[in-house]
Amino acid sequence: MSEPVKITVRPNGPLQVEGAIALTDASGKQWDLVGKPAVFLCRCGASENRPFCDGAHKKVGFQDAASPEPPAA
C-alpha cells in the first residue's frame, strides 16, 4: 500500500504537497511530476508560475499563518 499524500500549509506561504500525486488542470492536462517528491502550490495568487509557488508571496506580503480547525469527531 502506498503512503498517503501529505499536504502541509506553510505559514504565510504555499501548500507543500508530498507523495504520489497527479496534478491536472481544468482542461484535463496533467503536469509531469515524475521524480518530484514534493511540489509547492501557490496560495497567494501572485505566482507567475501558477499553480506552483515562485516565492511571490514574499514580495506581495501574503499573510496567513492560521491553521484550520480539525473536523469534529
Task: Provide a descriptive summary of the structure in words.
By secondary structure, the chain is mostly beta strands. It contains one helix and three strands. The protein has one helix at 56-60, and strands at 6-9, 15-18, 38-41. Strand 1 and strand 2 form a beta hairpin. It is globular. The relative contact order is 0.22.
Helix/strand-derived category reads mainly beta
Largest sheet, in brief, is: 3 strands, antiparallel
Runs in which pLDDT lies below 50 for 5 or more consecutive residues are none
Helix content: under 10%
Beta-strand content bin: 15-25%
Shape descriptor:
globular
Give the termini separation: 26 Å
In CATH's first tier, which class applies? Alpha Beta
Order of SSEs: EEEH
Number of helical regions: 1
**CATH arch. level architecture:** 3-Layer(aba) Sandwich
Number of domains: 1
Count the beta strands. 3
Q: What is the CATH topology assignment? A: Ribosomal Protein L9, domain 1
What topology, given as strand order, has the largest sheet?
Answer: 1-2-3
Radius of gyration: 14 Å
Mean pLDDT: 91
